[in-house]
Predict the structure.
Amino acid sequence: MNIDKAKTLTRMKTLTELHGVAGFEDKVKAYLKSEMKPLVDTFVYNRMGGFYGVKRSKAKNPKRIMVAAHMDEIGFMVTHITQNGMLQFTNLGGVATDIWQGQRLKVQSRKGEEIVGIVANIPKHFRTGNEGAPKIEDLLLDIGAENAEEVRQRGIEIGDSIAPDTPFIQLSEHRFASKAWDNRYGCLIGIELLELLKDVELDFDLYVGANVQEEVGLRGARASAELIDPDVALVVDCSPANDMKGKQNLSGELGGGTLIRIKDGTMLLKPTFRDYLLNIAEKNDINYQYYISPGGTDGGEIHKAKIGIPTAVIGVCARYIHSTNAVFDMRDYTAARDLLKYSITNLNESKIEALQYH
């Protein structure tokens, strides 16, 4: 079956605009479950907050294949409420320190409301020229309150989460901008994979879902891997593109196709798995690009779990991730979706064993 592009864009908008920083993924989880429920037989959960929908096979003693996204986005946590009603905060995930002044952020209050504020900045008129880049802990979020009491009356307390206030927009025919494409991409592709395979009988049980707290150190992935104990895992995650001045080595180019991540700071792709993905891409005319990253994905934890789990990352790249806006190309998403679908449907017991032990 095919998926209507308008449906994909609606889901893309919904997912990227949801508030769900590391440790506060509940809204994303609720949306994913509602979309996945008609497409799976059951759900399984770990105690950290990760969950997976299971599409059962009719085969006897089936293998288990895991498709893993992560729900969380980068963001912040309230650490102090000043007497004049400003909020201080700490980061949740890796962020540059020099991009936040003057930006709009949203606080998720204890009352369930999302309250918009502006990160304070010093007007040009009052600058001395000696300010330098501020530290995150020195920034202030201005929600328009006049004092600390008013902040608390609005339901905001220390420990509450903050995310960028960024709408999903279309920039051109193929390119879009949003917050949280890292990694609502993986959440979206998981839903659409299940939809594409709705009427397909598989020789293995398929586990599709998402982990928590990836952005603060891949913390939720191991719990999911040990819950499922998969025979093979495919991680779906977003990576930074470095193509603003043209293609730069193996660092991602918008429109270049899905990413086959051969090396990063947490995992090396097994040659047998690399060749399997390349063969699938070539046979199905799927655009792809090699990718190397100093960072990592949940694959860094998954591939080390139990007695070792053959793991590959099927990714897309985007510009300016871990900021208020990411720019990405829809063609890269569809290439990744095709590679994921065909990688799953071409697996069988002998290929799984080859990925495990060769």
